[in-house]
Write a structure and sequence with these properties.
The chain is built from 4 helices and no strands. It has one domain.
Length: about 130
């Protein structure tokens, strides 16, 4: 069981790093003097900003904390639900690959999908291992 817990924590951390690199990939062209500014006349959608902050930090942090500080059935279930939600979000976001012109995004998103699948698999194994008494 500890093997699955350790791998799940590592996968949550890798997903957080992937979300961070996903954002950085949008601004990397600045180093080659490419304009990455968006139209300043548009208003920033506050709800989307909050959603992205929650997805990229809050959800992985809750996943890690649930694995490190509790061994209850409820926290393992929370971890699994969060893992499935992140995996589904990554799949939906990857479906937009055809509309992206940023090669950095094209390199990051498929790996994020793989990390999400591995996280869900280990989270399911963690739930089953505890129920079976392993």
């Amino acid at each position: 069981m500890e093997k699955y817990r350790t791998r799940a924590v590592a996968l949550w951390i890798l997903l957080s790093a992937g979300f961070a690199l996903h954002c950085v990939a949008d601004v990397l062209p600045i180093f080659w003097s490419v304009d990455v500014a968006v139209d300043a006349s548009a208003q920033m959608p506050q709800a989307m900003l909050l959603f992205m902050m929650s997805l990229s930090f809050f959800v992985p942090a809750v996943g890690v904390l649930s694995l490190l500080y509790s061994d209850s059935r409820w926290t393992r279930a929370v971890n699994l639900v969060l893992a499935v939600a992140v995996m589904l979000f990554n799949f939906v976001h990857s479906a937009e690959l055809g509309t992206l012109a940023n090669w950095g995004q094209l390199a990051i998103l498929p790996l994020m999908d793989v990390l999400g699948v591995l996280l869900v698999a280990d989270s399911v194994r963690l739930c089953r291992a505890k129920e079976e008494g392993r």
